[in-house]
Amino acid sequence: MTPRRAAVAPAAADSGDAPAVPPALQPGLDAFLAYLQVERRLSANTLDAYRRDLADLATWMGGQGITQWRGLRQEALRSYVAGAHRGGLSGKSLQRRLSAVRSFYRHLNRSEGSELNPAMGLRAPKAARRLPQVLDPDEMTRLVEVPTDGALGLRDRAMLELFYSSGLRLSELCGLRWGALDLADGLVTVTGKGNKSRIVPVGSHARTALQAWRDSQPAAAEAPVFPGRTGAPIHPRTVQLRLRALAQQQGLFKRVHPHLLRHSFASHVLESSGDLRGVQELLGHADIATTQIYTHLDFQHLAKVYDAAHPRARRKP
Fold first, then answer.
1. CA dihedral defined by 74, 75, 76, 79, rounded to 10 degrees?
2. Which end of the chain has a smaller Cβ tally under 10 Å, C or N?
3. pLDDT, tens digit (0-9, with 9 covering 90-100), for 294-303
4. Would you say 205 and 164 are in contact if contact means Cβ atoms under 8 Å apart?
5. Which residues participate in catalysis according to the annotation?
């Protein structure tokens, strides 16, 4: 069906509840989400992101009179992207949405034997490159060396040491079981994005902290390393709030969050080793381009050293 001409409405906000999907478009979306959950075994957070992005597009399509997924043409999709961008959606978010649309139509084509993919070759506005913030080694030392007294002291110390020692994602730390930790050899096996497993070293300070935490409350191999009140794995939001409180307690008034510890881990390892491929493996990045952002951080550090030390670079006050 040919879409009627109409003013392009801004896309729905990039957070919150998913918008209502027109009934004719819902079955295709449901089938795709079931495929992602069952066959690709994506995480709940990733599934929710796909659902929100595609539901927003489907709602916009309904407003344009496009009642079938096969009715979406590239010109219409380009108008949707332009409208969303004018509505304030960032280039990075639009890149993610177009990636979701491309994946959706690849799945639709496999089931229907078609080659239509309106998102193929369509680019989102260029996203501004933002370098991640990091804590310097002294700040990281101050953060991880929290007092171990009190009911949660040993747990907090073990959690922070492991975060920084191994560069884990928040979801990887929360879902970790004792059976995945080899404290004798200093290794941890984690399952990251795309259900991919990797083995990461655990430093001596983290091993000591983890052993002290386990000795304080012996647990079976299948038990979570960091349980919540019910015994189930600790909730990610609990970790985020606890980390913020511990940072303030230790006199760090930056915005400290779990991913900041991962950024700091990657930056410090790369700064010391210069081994970008090794850092990629440690972080579990599928694409080395994702890891390359840390080379910019390393160069930024070197530039500051140069400006401070070189007699012809120093700026006059």
1. 120
2. C
3. 766 555 554 5
4. no
5. 169, 193, 259, 262, 285, 294
